[in-house]
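hey so i finaly got around to running the thing on NADH-quinone oxidoreductase subunit I from Granulicella pectinivorans. pasting the sequence first so u can double check i didnt mess up the copy paste, my clipboard has been acting weird all day
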Amino acid sequence: MLGEGLLKGLAETARNFFGSYVGKERLTTVQFPEERAPRIEASRNFPFLVYDGDDWQQGLRCVSCLICEKECPPKCIFIEKSVDKKPDAVGKQQFYPARFNIDVSVCMSCQICVEVCPFDAIKMDVAFEASTAERFNDLLWNKKRLAKPNEYYHQIHPTEAAAVDADLAAARAKAAAPKLTPPATPATGSVPAQ
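ok and heres what it spat out for the 3d tokens, dont ask me to read them lol
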């Protein structure tokens, strides 16, 4: 029959349209301030810095390698490397950021900084309510505002955070394991006796 596909398409559209008024599970709109849609794990908004432990300054995973600053397309990350060092998660002495700022008015949430970070120190947040009633909001976020605990990372990205923690635990175990020396081999070219 001529136009059968058109009629099937119109019927499907009508079923979806009227079904959204009848079934609660079909409603796609939420009344925002009162109701909240569930957070999607794969969503991303602005970056944040992950820290381990209770003290955000001591537990910050960032070691000022400056890779994220170099790879950022809009150049919104500003890092100043410290002159002294502190131990990282595996106990190795590393530099830390004396200053770490992100200009969120320029950030395009591309996640390139997350992808290039070899220390899993910077991740993407799902929080999108960053507006305030003040006209001149502070849009240059410093490391204190960017620092969020590992527990928060587990809340918003549980699958990814579990994998990252497993990798860090393996690296810590490898660093803590005593290094075994190989057995000494005879220096001469003689064949051992049988």
